[in-house]
Specification:
Blueprint: E1 2-8, E2 12-16, E3 19-24, E4 31-37, E5 40-44, E6 46-51, H1 64-73, E7 76-81, H2 93-106, E8 110-113, E9 115-116, H3 125-131, E10 136-139, H4 153-166, E11 170-173, H5 177-186, H6 194-200, H7 203-220, E12 224-226, H8 232-243, E13 248-252, H9 254-258, H10 261-267, H11 280-291, E14 297-298, H12 328-335, H13 340-343, H14 345-350, E15 367-371, E16 375-376, E17 395-396, E18 399-405, E19 408-411
Parallel strand pairs: 1-4, 6-7, 7-8, 9-10, 10-11, 11-12, 12-13, 13-14
Antiparallel strand pairs: 1-2, 2-3, 5-15, 15-18, 16-17, 18-19
Helix pairs in contact: 4-7, 7-8
Length: 422
């Protein structure tokens, strides 16, 4: 007898002890509980390998409790928290263990933690790996957080050599600061509005940094994961490197697929991020790369802040981060549903999570019920610490009805019915 049999629109699942025991278009048998969910699609839940929940030290920006609940409501069952913007950042074993302790206490879903790759962290990378780091994150340009220094090519090479020896991936924020500097010298910003911000960080800064990172990964044998790529040209560089035998994967983010520069200007500070939002033609080309399977993963890069850091007249002085973790998936599903591997199985494969990412027997019963129910996004729905989202006022054609983690409901609606942390 199963613990649960659930009948969805596209398939049925049998679940026992938190594991999927059968998955087929239809199932019969006995179970302690049987649910008719034929109004909804059963899909794998999101493994979000790129969030900033900012705890400890900046929990007033978000925090593990509110961040994990918002992700659960948005269809996620696993997150990988970045080593910044917590304070101190995760660049030592002690900082890693403190964040792990807090996440075990406060998160309502599963998690992993990135360690930092900075000039100061190099002597501590092996200890962070021993403590359970999923990999190491480096910024190739200033991070915006003084405590987390950027990694120049020499530092990045050294860190990649260590990571390769440890068998762990390195994720990079790929923007070349010298390209940005020279661009701004040639085209000095004449204003401090969103248009000026968008124009201040060109695509070529991404491409230059991606080339450097790929070259270093090829030389060191490091597993490279390039995060939040905004343009098809960057994807092409990764595809070419794969064909040359480099162990590299690439991520983009929902906001680079859902917003263009015109929308960013209309939205204002809530749409500020780095790299910035691109043109409508770039967005369309990026969608094509995603649907072609050339983009490996989708990560939210949820990087929230208090409202006061998103206010004022000077966009350049404001915090640059998108806070849209709760409604990104429903909005993406409104466009297309052909990118499920980038949310789930591709992430599990890249980061060696053998129990996760697939609705098949033997895997954790992590899945969502996707309902064909329209929803207009309002600030009153937000479960993040601050009611900030670039998606306010947008309408999705689909809604995350229920999120299941190992066969148990994590949240059944956006009003917030959650299991206890654990």
């Amino acid at each position: 007898m199963s613990d649960l049999i659930i009948h969805g629109q596209n398939l049925a699942l049998a679940i026992t002890d938190g594991l999927i025991t059968a998955a087929a278009p239809t199932l019969s048998g006995t179970a302690k509980q049987e649910i008719d969910a034929r109004h909804a699609l059963i899909l794998p839940s999101w493994i979000d390998a790129h969030v900033h929940f900012n705890e400890p030290g900046r929990s007033h920006w978000e925090g593990l409790t509110t961040g994990s609940r918002a992700l659960a409501a948005g269809g996620g069952t696993v997150f990988f928290d970045m080593p910044l913007n917590s304070s101190p950042p995760v660049i030592t074993r002690a900082a890693f263990e403190e964040k792990r302790r807090l996440a075990e206490e406060k998160s309502c879903i599963d998690f992993a933690l990135w360690g930092g790759l900075t000039p100061d962290s190099l002597p501590h990378m092996e200890a962070m790996a021993d403590a359970g780091a999923i990999g190491f994150k480096a910024f190739m340009c200033p991070s915006g957080i003084d405590e987390f220094q950027d990694a120049n090519p020499s530092t990045l090479r050294h860190g990649m050599e260590i990571a390769a020896r440890l068998g762990l991936p390195v994720a990079v924020h790929a923007e070349d600061p010298e390209v940005i500097r020279l661009h701004q010298l040639a085209h000095p910003p004449t204003a401090t509005d969103m248009r000026a911000w968008l124009d201040s960080r060109p695509i070529e800064a991404e491409l230059s940094a991606i080339r450097i990172a790929i070259d270093l990964a090829g030389e060191t044998g490091c597993q490279l994961h390039i995060v939040h790529v905004t343009c098809p040209e960057g994807i092409d560089l990764v595809t070419a490197a794969k064909h040359q035998g480099v162990n590299v994967t690439v991520e983009t983010c929902p906001h680079y697929l859902l917003l263009d520069d015109t929308a960013a200007i209309a939205i204002g500070p809530f749409a500020k991020c780095a790299p910035p939002i691109r043109s409508a033609s770039t967005v369309a080309a990026l969608w094509q790369k995603l649907l072609n399977g050339e983009i490996d993963t989708l990560g939210s890069d949820h990087s929230p802040s208090p409202l006061d850091l998103k206010q004022g007249d000077d966009l350049f002085a404001m915090w640059g981060g998108i806070a849209g973790i709760q409604h990104a998936l429903p909005l993406l599903f409104s466009h297309n549903q052909a990118f499920i591997p980038q949310l789930s199985s591709n992430v599990a494969t890249r980061f060696r999570l053998p129990q996760k990412g697939s609705i098949t027997p033997g895997h954790d019963a992590d899945f969502i019920l996707l309902e064909n129910t329209p929803n207009t996004i309002a600030s009153s729905q937000l479960l993040t610490r601050h009611p900030i989202s670039p998606y306010l006022g947008l309408t999705s054609t689909h809604t995350i009805g229920v999120t299941y983690l190992r066969g148990e409901i994590v949240t059944s609606d956006t009003r917030g019915k959650f299991l206890s942390p654990g």
